Amino acid sequence: MAATVLAVLGACAAPPAPLPFKALVPVGSMSVEALGPGLADSVSIVTWLSPPADEPVTIVGQRPAGRDGDDALLDLSVRYQDFPGAGPVAHGRTLKRALPFGGDGVASPTLPLTRWFTVDLDAPRDALARRVHVVGRLYTVDVHDQEGHAGSVVIDLPLASVETIARPPSLSLAVALRSGPADEVFLAAAATPPALRPRAVDQLVQSLATTQGAVREAAFAGLLFLTGETLGRSEYRWQQWWRERRGTNAGLR
Predict the structure, then answer these.
(1) Which in 69, 120, 146, 176 has the greatest CB count within 10 A?
(2) By C-alpha distance, which of 29, 35, 40 is closest to 81?
(3) pLDDT surpassing 60 at residue 27
(4) pLDDT digits over 222-244, tens only?
(5) CA 75, 134, 84, 229 torsion: positive or negative?
(6) Last residue of some domain: 119, 135, 165?
């Protein structure tokens, strides 16, 4: 009788069986915004992790053996380009940042697990516009639901971008191309909303045949910013490139 009681008590005290391994990789997304007006010298980055199915999952940071400190790490690659607005020239730099991801949490279909981060950039010099691209990876997290867990997983966070300009333009692009000044040509081009950029590129390409000096240089700078194409100062190369793409929006930022 005593042996039976001890056996029952021992069974009750036994730790629960570990959860079996299961394919559970959350869906990651990310956004980036400038902190403050003007050219961004700091950006705010927000990450969201959503469950891979309709049920909530718990995300737990895993501390590697022998390491103190935070559990999971967010590995960011931040590339930013500065555009002086005079000619088809841009200056780029890439920063690498490994940031502590923060505490564990639950990601549900209606409430993703959200984290906020701030990354400081170099102060812009002699630039009228700055474009920032961010990609990320989250390392050393375990994901589990009631039926299993994934072990150590890596979650990719897709590209997020933000564009900033030194100041809002005071002229429309059409007016700036006719009467300048050159800075206003570039600012008006860079401030063009995405839906209107094909029209802006069309105006800039057409202007190459009639503008000169600083205004023409600003038109080349605007084309570089809006398209990302490195076609230099060749009026004919830009005209040929645009003839092949007009009406498709292909190649526009």
Answers:
(1) 176
(2) 40
(3) yes
(4) 999 999 999 999 999 999 999 99
(5) positive
(6) 165
